[in-house]
Amino acid sequence: MFTNLPNLLTVSRIFVIVPLIALLYAEGHVLRWIALGLFTVACLTDFFDGYIARSMNQLSNFGRFLDPVADKLLVVAVALMLVADGRIDGFVVLAALVIMMREILVSGLREYLAELKVRLPVSSLAKWKTVIQMIALGHLIIHDAGPAAYPTILVGETGLWFASVLTLMTGYDYLSASRRHLKDVR
Question: Which domain, by its residues, includes 35?
Answer without folding.
Answer: 5-182
